[in-house]
Amino acid sequence: MNRLKKSLIGITSAILLSLMLSACAMNSSSEKEPQSGSNQKSTANVKSTDSKSYRANNMSALPAKSKARKDTFIAGISAPGGVFLPYFYENGWDGNATDPIFAPLVNLDKDGKPVGILAEKWDVSKDQLTYTFHLRKGLKFSDGSPLTADDVAFTLTLLHDPAYSGGQDISLASIKGGKAYKEGKAKSIEGIKVIDKETIEITTDKVNAKSLLLLGGQVLSKSYYGKDYQYGKLDYLKNLYPKPLGAGPYKFEKYVPGQEIRYTANENYYAGAPKTKHLIFKIIDKSTSLQLFETGELDYAGFSADDDTVEQLKSLGFANIQVSPVNDYGLVYVNNTHPQFKDKAVRQALIYGLDRQKIVDVKFKGYGQVANIPVSPVSWAYDDKGINPFEYNSKKAKELLDGAGWKKGKNGIREKEGKPFVIHYLTADAEDPFIPIAKENYQDIGIKFEPEIMDFNALVSKLNKKDYDFAAVSTSQILDPSDTVEELAANNPNNAAGYSNPKVDDLIQKGLSTLDIEKRKSIYHELYKELNDDPPYIFLNYRQSARAVSGKVEGLNPDNYTGISASLPNISITK
């Protein structure tokens, strides 16, 4: 689970690619404290809140290529960059590639609850500021060298180095003395204390619900990655990017750019060597993933769900199929810094005046639902009670626009202070169904809608510069409800929407300032109601994915938090 990317938002086309391997190819920062396992469903009676499974019923149809592989599991991956070191990669696919090699102290289970991996257990002080991790006895890296609390301390120290510029913002954990170390005012980090080789105590200055996983991330070997370490100089690590050494279930074997990444079972893994000796991540294009699965060249693949794809997968006979909600949502960014969008009544009108249900129906063909709050229905924090669904109502939209001073001109386009109401919409999807529907809907309420299809990187650049009116985006996989709202804080440098609401700022902080799950639920529900009244952007959809696993593979259980990585040590090939 590559939990350490800088940005929360991934453009829709990139998110679709993530289905090949896991739910989090471009994901955000880490998740938090114990949660209830209940998944509250939306009141909408649509497919996207339901999970369905279909078992293989004709293993005689298993392709010859697949039958010939007795000790190798193959999954698809898209465009890794070759930086196989946690915390340092910028390409999300490199995060997927490192997951089998590097194990964390703490991970998430299928319900998003923290579970010990290298850490046997952990304690949190009564004031919720000090974390004590108790490592499993006899831990080893894949080369047989011991893994101790010193390695954990080294990893956290490295992330505080002033030369570190990767995607993990360890400052969010507020380790005592971390800032002083980074600024060169201290030679060590006061809050990191190694008690013994299996125990480390970390003291923080501020309660943060996400600190557990920020502190309990993947562990780097001090003897390997720290051998040449000098304060303020991290360039030496670049030589080790293609030669990773970790304590995960698999050892890195070989990377063939454009073709594959090979791994072998790690006999020194704490839980024992994985049942399947060889693992291959095959580098593929999403357009060919179904064909490769059908011919037996892949043992696992993921797809955007639709009836045709599901029926085709079922017809193969040898596939176990899971159709279930994805832990993200689609939205349209609205640039709140532009004058025409500053009035919340105008933003409300833009939602009322858009037939979002039609957009969802066209795009997901029954495997999606309209979104109204910034969290997925699979999350423990989902609660849409008392939330205005903003059902399509052009009359209401017109009334709000009239009230906001936007009056129709001679050409039918609304104007205010001599300026016409024009929306420039950016998308990287040439077949984006939002375009024709929004164009028609907005014309009806007196707004000119001008779409612009552009390259993915160009869109990201404009988004970061706030050089847009509307922009099509999708969140990364949501590990914690704070992930999708943190960037709405007025002082957040990633606030690409330019949104500002003091009450929202306060609720965002409150949501992170306790580890009590019930208190967090209540805070986020209040936050969702405020965002419903003062919408920062247009919520569009929740969606489903279809995951297919060859019937010969047992033990692979993809989930919404770790994708396939958590179950890799348990898979076995039966036929």
Distance between the termini: 28 Å
Count every helix, treating DSSP H or I runs of 4 or more residues as helices.
16
Structural class: alpha+beta
Shape: globular
Bin the strand percentage.
Answer: 15-25%
Gyration radius from CA atoms, angstroms:
24 Å
| Stretches with pLDDT under 50, minimum 5 residues | 1-48
Largest sheet: 10 strands, mixed
Can you give the mean pLDDT?
90
Give the fraction of residues assigned to helices.
10-25%
Q: How would you characterize this protein structure?
A:
This protein has 575 residues and is α+β, with helices and mostly antiparallel strands. Helices cover 23% and strands 21% of the residues. The strands form 6 sheets. Strands 1, 2, 13, 14, 15, 16, 20, 21, 22 and 23 form a 10-stranded mixed sheet that branches. Helix 13 links the parallel strand 20 and strand 21. The radius of gyration is 24 Å and the shape is globular. It starts with 8 loop residues before the first strand and ends with a strand. The N terminus is likely disordered.
Which terms summarize this structure?
25 strands; 16 helices; 23% helix; alpha+beta; 10-stranded mixed β-sheet; disordered N terminus; 4-stranded mixed β-sheet; 575 residues
Architecture blueprint of SSEs:
Elements: E1 9-10, H1 12-18, E2 52-54, H2 64-67, E3 72-77, H3 92-98, E4 106-108, E5 114-116, E6 119-124, E7 130-135, H4 149-159, H5 178-182, E8 192-196, E9 199-203, H6 211-215, H7 222-225, E10 250-256, E11 260-265, E12 278-283, H8 289-294, E13 300-304, H9 307-316, E14 319-325, E15 330-334, H10 344-352, H11 356-364, E16 368-370, H12 394-403, E17 407-408, E18 414-416, E19 419-420, E20 422-427, H13 434-444, E21 448-453, H14 456-464, E22 470-475, H15 502-512, H16 517-533, E23 538-550, E24 553-554, E25 572-573
Parallel strand pairs: 3-12, 20-21, 20-22
Antiparallel strand pairs: 1-22, 2-14, 4-5, 6-7, 7-9, 8-9, 10-11, 11-12, 13-23, 14-23, 15-22, 15-23, 16-23, 17-18, 18-19, 24-25
